[in-house]
From TrEMBL:
Keywords: Lyase. This is Polysaccharide lyase family 14 protein. Gene3D superfamilies: 2.60.120.200. Residues 64-287 form the Polysaccharide lyase domain. PANTHER family: DISAGGREGATASE RELATED REPEAT PROTEIN, PTHR40124.
Length: 301
């Protein structure tokens, strides 16, 4: 598949507005931007660095990447006594794209993607986090993780997670209700964790070190009053997980929406058995996003 097809694994005619840092992608309505904090609307940056470097296996399609450095013993960034590892920030995309997101209103459907490379000889330990789409109502969208229980009806966070051996999952924080629980459990190999995120589709795909993997997420916000929200994960252009019948918001559609990517990666968990087993690195590039053409809402049918 071409770079355009794996970073935007949907019919390209559906794209209303998009952006990409991938030099090899050329699509109508998709603007090229540089891989930089200022161009991508990076904010709420953690104490750990995310330098732009020339990555391993650099070529015309991967000339630069954000580098994540994981020190031996590093773990969840909430642990201030452990050595630093990974990085974290929120990213809402270029300013014009952000404004387009805000104008989408009630019938919002978005695809966001990136490529990740784990170094040769990478050791997975018990698991760790990878970036994913986040959103909700204003500032409530931030911090929708870490076992948060309050105001969960006002936020969602759809990071991914690797587990032992590179087996992976969608690690979802979405509003807590019986409809969502049933919908996520309907995805094979899923289970509800008692205090933290919902493990969805664990092992439906596996990451491997030493080559670039394209991760894409598609989120369709539900029509308020209907359980018609969707989350889909694509790996290298192939759909590996599709959850339907979701309620991602239960309030005014103009208030609750996709806000961008929660670009976070670290080992953990929070306890020492999750800690990074040695000094190692990963790289992220070709960050992209697209707003898709809206379908009629229920009340317009």
């Amino acid at each position: 598949m071409t770079a355009a097809n794996v970073l935007f694994p949907i019919p390209h005619a559906q794209i209303v507005s998009g952006f990409t840092t991938a030099p090899a992608v050329s699509l109508a309505h998709v603007a090229h931007v540089a891989l930089s904090d200022s161009n991508l609307g990076v904010h709420k940056v953690s104490r750990h660095s995310h330098d732009v470097v020339v990555p391993p296996y650099a070529d015309s399609a991967h000339p630069a990447a954000w580098e994540a450095v994981f020190a031996q013993g590093s773990i969840n960034p909430g642990n201030k006594t452990a050595p630093p590892g990974g990085f974290g920030f929120y990213m809402h995309g270029p300013e014009t794209w952000r404004h387009e997101l805000e104008r989408c209103g009630g019938r919002q459907e978005v695809v966001m993607s990136y490529e990740v490379l784990f170094e040769d000889g990478w050791e997975w330990q018990r698991g760790g986090k990878l970036p994913g789409i986040y959103g909700g109502i204003g500032a409530f969208a931030y911090g929708c993780s870490g076992g948060r229980q309050e105001s969960r009806c006002k936020c969602f966070d759809l990071r991914l997670m690797w587990r032992q051996g590179g087996k992976s999952e969608l690690y979802a924080y979405i509003p807590l209700n019986d409809t969502n629980t049933a919908a996520l459990l309907n995805v094979p190999q899923s289970h509800r964790n008692p205090d933290y995120g919902f493990s969805v589709g664990r092992g439906l795909w596996t990451f491997a070190p030493g080559h670039w993997t394209v991760v894409a997420e598609r989120v369709r916000m539900n029509t308020v009053g209907h359980a018609d929200g969707e989350i889909e994960v694509f790996i290298d252009g192939q759909s590996v997980l599709h959850a339907t019948g979701l309620i991602l918001r239960d309030t005014d559609a103009a208030e609750s929406s996709v806000q961008g990517l929660h670009f976070q990666t670290f080992f953990g968990g929070s306890s020492e058995e999750w800690a990074c087993p040695k000094d190692q690195k990963a790289w992220f590039t070709n960050v992209s996003g697209a707003i898709l053409r809206a379908e009629p809402a229920h009340d317009e049918l």
